[in-house]
Amino acid sequence: MIAQLEHAQELLRRMPPDKADATVRHVAQSMHRLFNLAVFPTRLIERSPLPRGFLPQIVHRRAKTYLYPEEAQVLTFREIPLVLRVLYGFLDREGCRVTEATTLDFCDVDPDYGEIHLDANKTNDPRSWAMGSDTTEALRRWRDHFHPSPAPSTRVFVYPETSREAGEPIDGAARAEEFRANLRKAGLARPQLFMNDHERRHICIHDLRATFVTIALAAGKTETWVADRTGHSSSDQIHTHRRQARTHAELKLGGLAPLHEAIPELRAAVPDHPVRSSDPHSRGSSGDRPQEGENQMHSEISETTAERAGFEIVPTTLAARRMIVVRLKFSRITLLAASACRRPLHRTVVT
């Protein structure tokens, strides 16, 4: 047992010094998992040699970034294979993991009704959700006009038969290096996208998921709405994007353009029927104008009076007896009424 523990420690010591703390911890977690499986169900050993506290702590977290909406020009660059651009747009608008997207079959996605089902995933927690109307329309046009064989049992993201990459698996082309190379091809040059040092990590395709979470939170989406799509099992994982989301909102960077309009080939494909959209002003799946429902961040301002809202004004002067019209946000009426009226207010008791 002691020898096995020493071997595990030696493996961690031999990790390259440029590897992040999170990478070292992932290696330790893999060893921990392996020894646990050796205990049960295989019963090869009596107990794990790794003691409590073996997993190294993450002391330093490197800064990360995401794609700004204006950087979605990568979707217009025709030298990048169309299937990759559709995949990129799908990931940053729906938020699922890369492996979940690349293993999707058409039986898991319904482009006619806009529903997606992920029965098999990393957390073994089947989930489904309603895709954005723009994503739904984009996948419908991809299926009807560009996919080589859109049968229920075929992958959604495959290379068309007319391309040089026909038959190649999409996973190989979705590597981080390939993704960054495609960003450079499209002319993206923001330094934070490509910096890779002790303080900052360069962008990878997994960060399209961070793009989705950041823009969704900035648009007022709830953590529940986000987790339904990303599959995050802990709100702490989503919380790490909140500061970035607040900055995004303060800079007024906005949301992503509708996917079926952002990709030239899909925009040129004539749909067989009108595009369904519950919000004609929506900018896409994670745009500035969320669809109505529990995810809507209500910010409409309406005129009302303090008296109608359940308050009465203390008559300190003759002018104070006049009705004061107050512009209130309905969702924050109890917080904003006093400052808006600039008079001491008391709740009216109805008998």
Q: In a few lines, what is going on in this structure?
A:
With 351 residues, the chain is mainly alpha-helical. The chain has helices at 2-13, 21-39, 82-94, 98-102, 133-145, 170-173, 176-185, 191-194, 207-218, 223-230, 235-239, 242-250, 259-262, 264-268, 333-341; strands spanning 109-110, 115-118, 127-130, 301-305, 311-313, 325-329, 345-347.
Radius of gyration: 26 Å
In CATH, the topology of the largest domain is named: hpI Integrase, Chain A
| Mean pLDDT over the full residue set | 79
Distance between the termini: 77 Å
Please identify the structural class as seen in this structure. Answer: mainly alpha
Number of DSSP E strands: 7
SSE arrangement, N to C: HHHHEEEHHHHHHHHHHEEEHE
- As an assembly, this protein is single chain
The low-pLDDT segments are 278-283, 287-351
- The strand line-up of the biggest sheet is 1-2-3
CATH homologous superfamily descriptor of the largest domain: Intergrase catalytic core
Helix content: 25-40%
Number of helices: 15
Strand residues, percent: 5-15%
CATH architecture term of the largest domain:
Orthogonal Bundle
Count the domains: 3
- Main sheet: strands, sense, barrel: 3 strands, antiparallel
How would you sum up the global shape?
globular
Features:
disordered C terminus; two-stranded antiparallel sheet; three-stranded antiparallel beta sheet; 7% strand; hpI Integrase, Chain A; 351 residues; 3 domains; 7 strands; mainly alpha
